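Incident review: delayed structure delivery

Summary: a single-chain prediction request sat in the queue longer than the usual turnaround. Root cause was a stuck worker, restarted by the on-call engineer. No data loss occurred. The affected request and its eventual output are reproduced below so the record is complete for anyone auditing the incident later.

Affected input:
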Amino acid sequence: MLRLVVSPRSEERLSAAEAFLCEAPSDTEVLLVGASRGAALDLAARVGAKRGATFGLHRLTLGRLAARLAAIDLAKRGIAPASPLAIEAVVTRAVADALAQNLLDYFAPVAKTPSFSRTLCTTIAELRAERIGPDDIRGVDRRSSDIRTLLRLYEEHRARAKIADHADVLFTAAAATREAADVRRSMLVLVDVPITSRADESLVTELVRHAKQSFACVPMGDGRAERVLSTLATSRVEPLPDEPGSALSRLCQYIFAAEEIKPTETSDDVAFFSAPGERRECVEIARRILAEARRGVRFDDVAVFLRAPEAYAGLLESAFARAKIPAHFAFGSSQPEPSGRALLALLACRAEDFSSKRFAEFLSLAPTNRDVVLTTNESSLPSSRSELLGALLEGQPVMLPYETTPTLPKASSTPLLPTLLWERLLAEASIVGRKDRWPRRLDALGQSFDRELHLLRQTDSSSPRIDTVERESQALRDLSDFALPLIEALAALPQRASWKVWLEELGRIATMALEDPSHVITTFTELDPMADVEDVAFDEVRRVLEGRLGTKTVQPSGRRYGEVFVGTPDLARGRSFAVVFVPGLAERLFPEAPREDPILLDADRRAISKTLWTQTDRGQYERLLLRLSVGAARQRVHLSYPRVEVTAGRPRMPSFYGLDVRRATTGILPDHDTLERDAATASGTRLAWPAPALPEDAIDDAEHDLAMLGLLLHSSNDAPTAGRAQYLLDLNPHLARSLRSRSARWDRPYSHHDGVIRKTAATAPVLNANRLRTRSFAVTAIEKFAACPYRFLLAAIHRIPARERRTTPDRLDPITRGVLFHRVQAAALAALEKQDGLPLCLDRQTQALRALDQCLDKAARDHEERVLPTVSSVFWDEIERMRIELHGWMMQVIEDHDHLELIRYDLSFGLPLHEHEDPRSMAEAAKLNEGFLLHGAIDVVERHVATSQCRVTDIKTGTSFAKPTMVIGGGEVLQPVLYALSYEAVWNERVVDARLSFCTHRGGHTEHVIALDGAARERAKRVLELVDDAIDKGFFPAAPRENACDNCGYRIVCGPHEERRAARKDESTVDDGVMFSRLRAIRSEP
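Output delivered after worker restart:
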């Protein structure tokens, strides 16, 4: 005997269920089955509060009851319930077998993609729940044939593994119900239990037929549940037919109703508003919850139902934290699991040929103790609680791509490994990939450390660099001891093995590599039923584990009382709240865009069974979700939507559900423009000003301060506003400093906010130590001053490296290409000198080109070993182009031998000794006549045969920037002249000219000769004097020349508007503008 209640209001249904339970004799057991365990607990609490003590009231979900009923029968058959992960493993196995046997036709091109198996899991689960087998799929097309094959293979592998999926458990429970004594002696109460499949239907039918007495309540619009229970009901309570009075009652009664609705005035118990973006919408929800609380509504009597939790959950959590509103996220959250992600990174390292990048990712994810044991046995594997029945006992968990703040790793008494230093050492070692490179490259880096230590101890035993190198050397040894056994263990993994072997081997690696592998081992336990499955490939194992190891579902802790309830609309079943919020009523959010199953399309579904879901059913389900959400409200419901898609920068339209809400509450169907205008007016929020109109409506201090500023900025009365926001600067010194700095940077006078502009007592010692007559500077560093004095300060004095622009290892970036080009030139000339091949001439052409080729090949192999290009042929194509250009340069030198004799190469001064440099290089810096100290390396020195005077050549591998009259290039092309002056100062030989040689295809194989006359020497002298005076006076403003910021590596420091900002400045505020005048004069020099 079944009493059925159908109503759009949760409170009406729950009151009827409560009355039925209160009527039950106290000595009768009751099976209280809710749509969720929380809903069952809430109703039981209501009954307990009314009746007092209760006995024999079993609070269950349909899944938990099914697991209890089916447990004995499944055990007798030797079948174990399977977790979703195990089912996915079975499906993946079926797909792999179908591909191996060439049984797939239509799905063959996509069957190897990671998402195919997961999508197929959903399709198979739906077919199984409707008791549809391979023979029921009668289509003869390619798609139907593939689905039939996959379903048959799935059932074969599932039977072989002796595991039961969700449908198996439900059908087994339905059969067991006929003989279940605890069902026959109990009353049954079904509270908003969804019936979505034949499996659910069969179990509910058997429960109702065999229970002592039954009651069921169903929300209006739940079509299948209402049809099934109506056929079983002996009495039915319909909704009251009289005209509802409040807007909320009208909304619940007439939402999506087809009949005509009488127009009426609306009331404030249904609110519809919009906000500029989801984040602001969540803030507005928090504001309205605080307003409801001020009206006396308890937090735990407020609910927020999210149709798109992946878009809203994190934003809502942030808004509630700002407003200090306690919240209970009933659907839990999917949090990142560091240990699982670390193991996945190791498996990716193995899959990508032992990629050092993936290993570095593993190091960043897995904090590991120094005392980690690198060899384990079975007894060392941690025990863990099996989660195999979890999904069946509590219903299918909601898995969301929403990630909350990850929990910090627990404190350990043993020191953590220096993973940051290890990551840097991996990059320095240039391992890149391949197992054989790991020990070789780590050993090569260790040898380089040993050489550096030996040289430092010989040349400067007190250098602080010695301690740094020793520390890095020890860290490298620790890295080798930790990483190489792991690499060996990964290399020892088989290509194919049984699941049992895979779980054992991966469990062993997990205990080797992870500080806390419990989550990983627990996940492996879910796959225990698959242990006997043979011939599983490594890639198949990765695909199965990728969707599960990286995240863990964290269910909410504790009870929900005292906290705002946040859940999905499905969780509104069996629950009632005073106030309900339903955000996201925008297109593609609520309702979701209906999508057909990509594997089993609707046309095929209709041909197979009328009970399989199609687009019509999906549309009805979306409508039911809105009915459930608004029906859970007793007093007031707030509906909202984001009117701006902030990430895409475009407006959003309210969904047609918003129109139906207005029609149900007022009887009038508005147009979209009216609805949007009214919704925007209801909230009063603006995208440009994230604060309410009144400070007292703010949810936190930041909003309060912005609201106060908004009032002051837009004040229309004559009341004085000066000083009314002073409290902001008093409360937050950082805000005061930031505002004053920003104002000063855009103000006309120069100040210390515009860089270093004057010497102070604090900066004087540093500046004096960096004068050009005190320490040597690289010529390339001095060139930066004319482009921007502040760039010179950052690069030459602070010595901050500019931001690098990385390229792929297949291609040589301009800097790497130039370094390689110069290295090969120097090495070839050094080799020729050792072979008595200098000076160059036509008779030595073959010898010179051979030496050049040998040096290029060696340099290219060394570079390839360091970076390991992905496509070797592309890299060697670049090398061959460089070979052609090097040959062209060498031939030009040989052709000029009759009037220019190459006498020195890679001639350094003021630099540490290095390989291939000219043996005549000097360790001392060059001291010019004026006392300025410089260091650098001259590419080539040639002697004019006719006059015996010298020429200094600077070789360039980029685009030619020379102009016909160029001497110092506005202070940014100083290498030719200053290298010539340095050569005269160090080697006491007269230099008559300097040359820029653009000896590549990009440079057009051109050259530019600069006569080293008095004018050129004077111009170079003025540049050096300006830079030295600037250091002496502390003159380093951010004053770039035109377009100097476009390719500046320090732009991230200054910002994008320095050139425009500097143009506003009053130069006379710094030393009466004298230094700026001198800087402009240098920039105007040719």
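Verification: The longest helix spans residues 465-491.
Action items: add queue-age alerting; document worker restart procedure.
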